[in-house]
Write a sequence for this structure.
């Protein structure tokens, strides 16, 4: 049973470009969470999605960031017009049910570097 | 609002010493979960333990042990006879019933175990 997969593992973008981060949850998991870890900091919640629905996006920056989890395929975190401050590790986690009843399984993360 | 404080930013010990990592949390909920994760230099997140608010039993797993005390809102983590491979950043996290979709992480404690 494969774990949570994230790709790419490392992503380099120049300022103004778009970054697309993908997360494939564990098999049977329909809940996905995205977190951001800035250098030397802990993880900060960004968004919680179920299939085709955004449940909680209270941690998402108001501009340039969006997330989706379509009926088919991986969850996508999209950052438009990236800036240097977007450089961070982005972690995806999945669970088969709301977090409270199950642990979250984390992916290996995508490390975004903005030049 | 939920909050997790890991007051120790960095700890350095010599191999075979015991070390305790502190975690203090704040929550208004009576039902919540607490977690510990390890983040080795490779960057992935490794799940260590989950504890719900109704289970105050201490837990031991090999050289790891956890002390959960609701009276002081603490969930401390002790490594006995530390080893160089224990060197990592350790995160404590909290999830509330009313925020079932997200975990709040502390800023982490960087543990260095010297040979």
């Amino acid at each position: 049973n494969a774990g949570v997969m994230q790709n790419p593992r490392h992503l380099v973008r120049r300022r103004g470009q778009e970054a697309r981060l993908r997360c494939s949850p564990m098999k049977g998991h329909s809940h996905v969470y995205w977190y951001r870890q800035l250098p030397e900091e802990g993880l900060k919640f960004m968004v919680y999605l179920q299939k085709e629905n955004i449940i909680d996006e209270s941690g998402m920056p108001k501009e340039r960031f969006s997330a989706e989890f379509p009926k088919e395929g991986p969850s996508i975190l999209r950052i438009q017009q990236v800036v240097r401050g977007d450089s961070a590790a982005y972690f995806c986690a999945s669970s088969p049910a709301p977090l409270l009843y199950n642990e979250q399984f984390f992916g290996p993360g995508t490390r975004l570097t903005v030049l | 609002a939920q909050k997790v404080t890991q007051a120790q930013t960095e700890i350095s010990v010599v191999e075979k010493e015991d070390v305790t990592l502190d975690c203090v949390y704040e929550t208004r909920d009576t039902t919540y979960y607490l977690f510990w994760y390890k983040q080795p230099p490779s960057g992935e997140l490794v799940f260590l333990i989950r504890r719900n608010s109704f289970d105050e039993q201490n837990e031991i797993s090999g050289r790891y042990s956890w002390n959960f005390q609701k009276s002081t809102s603490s969930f401390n983590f002790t490594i006995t006879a530390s080893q160089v491979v224990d060197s990592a950043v350790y995160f404590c996290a909290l999830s509330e019933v009313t925020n079932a979709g997200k975990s709040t992480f502390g800023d982490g404690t960087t543990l260095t175990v010297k040979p």
